[in-house]
Amino acid sequence: MADDDGVVFPADLEGRRSTAAVGRAVVADALRPVDPPGARAAEQETNWRGGYLVHFRRLVEAGLADPAAARTLAAAGLASLHDRMRVAADGEERPLASLDAEPAGRTLGTREVRGTAEPERELSLPFRGARLRGDDLARRLDAWVTAGALEPSAAEAVRAVAAHPEWLAVPDRTIVVLGAGAEMGPLTALLRWGARVAAVDLPRAPLWRRVLETADRGAGTLVVPAGRDDGDPAEAAGADLVREVPAVAEWIAALPGSLVLGNYVYADGADNVRVSTAVDALTLRLQREHPDLALAFLATPTDVFAVPREAVEHSVRAYAGRSTPAKLLVRPLRTVTAGRLLQRGYVPGAEPGVNDSLVAQQGPNYALAKRLQRWRATTARAAGTTVSMNVAPPTRTRSVLKNRALAAAYAGAHRFGVEVFEPATSNVLMAALLVHDLQTGGGPRHEHPWQDEAHAAVHGGLWRTAYAPRSALGLAALLGLGAARG
């Protein structure tokens, strides 16, 4: 993705676009209304690439004492990002807000594919080569709850969907899947269930051939934006969100039915912030035309979250119940690493606890892109919007496995009570939670935003393991190195 047009980071006087400068400033602006010392600390961070972790943790901690503070922080972060990011075209830059009313550069047509299969009438979950349904599914959910791989509220939500299979097709809604080719997106599951899906992704023919074939094998209806009405649909489909917010906004606004805007976009490095910012600008534009627009996101498990007392207690029990060899191993390891390895997960009795599962290798741009989505979910809920945002489990996606350190850590994670899911399992599980949220008005409303984020989380055990996740990451990577190479 070229960096010279579309949604871009601002250029300094010498024409350089510093992602670190923007990230540092946005975090400081978000903290400033509720935590001025934290804002100053972020502003004075000289090594943003290496030092961002503590500041992203502070973004959660600063809002814990007061729900209003958490919402103020989220709104301030969003405002800062929108104020700082720019739109570039023809060698000129303008404010991001110009996308609010900018006319489309082209009019997108629509291609439609109707699936040839019968809709699935029962929720089934792919798991280790089988499909779990009925009692088998219920037992697997119970096993995950017992192991601490997900919060009990997530299991309850999936059970509710299993008990109401008529929900699966999401009647009377059009679900817009931004990032249609994403491994973690719900597109395949929704089409199997008979839903109406509008897919948006980059104009890349191989990607669209896969998506269109998926739609043909499914039972739902897929609509895609297209630049022309003739020829190979895969060659004509797609739009670039970074550069074409107005065109995509006009295309989505004309779709029938009650709309759900699902954000599943991903890109590497700085481009992740660019496309996430573009999606947020698109969201604001669509909300003006469709006040009932529902929003959907997947939160990454490798972030900082406040977690409920029950998760803290589970972790404390796991720490106390370690085997004798494990206890004997901890002391020398902590001694030689100055206490950095295998730290206790939480202070006993913490309520809420703070789970810091940020992974340094993923970088500050990834953290900012995902935090932007959480901030939008928080502010949208406060405004009465139906929001589905659930923490997705650690998953062996291509983007994870190409990071050698993270792939090795995932391969060794089971030794620390963390389950890494296969994409097929994650996709259906998270799609079921999306369906549940849409059918229940976004699920229960809580007093504090952290409680909304923690509800129905599928964290794979990161919240309930005995150790602070990052303090076990290096050892997990070492133990999983051979498996990851295999």
Short description, anyone?
With 486 residues, the protein is α/β, with parallel strands linked by helices.
Question: Which descriptors would you attach to this protein?
Answer:
Rossmann fold; three-stranded antiparallel sheet; 13% strand; globular
Describe this structure in words.
The strands form 4 sheets. Strands 4-9-8-7-10-11-14 form a 7-stranded mixed beta sheet, sandwiched between helices. The protein contains 19 helices and 14 strands. Helix 10 packs parallel to helix 11. The chain has 2 domains: 96 residues, no CATH class; 336 residues, Rossmann fold. It has 486 residues and is α/β, with parallel strands linked by helices. It is globular, with a radius of gyration of 22 Å.
Distance between the termini: 31 Å
Report on the biggest sheet: 7 strands, mixed
Number of contiguous helices: 19
CATH topology name of the largest domain, in short, is Rossmann fold
- Multimerization state: single chain
What's the CATH C level of the largest domain?
Answer: Alpha Beta
Element layout with pairings:
Layout: E1 6-8, H1 19-31, H2 36-43, H3 48-61, H4 67-84, E2 86-89, E3 92-95, E4 109-114, E5 125-127, E6 130-132, H5 134-147, H6 152-163, E7 173-178, H7 187-193, E8 196-200, H8 205-217, E9 221-226, H9 233-236, H10 245-253, E10 258-263, H11 270-289, E11 294-299, E12 304-307, H12 309-320, H13 324-336, E13 353-356, H14 363-382, E14 387-391, H15 398-401, H16 404-412, H17 423-439, H18 449-454, H19 469-485
Parallel strand pairs: 7-8, 7-10, 8-9, 10-11, 11-14
Antiparallel strand pairs: 1-2, 2-3, 4-9, 5-6, 12-13
Helix pairs in contact: 1-2, 1-3, 1-4, 3-14, 4-14, 5-6, 6-17, 10-11, 11-14, 16-19
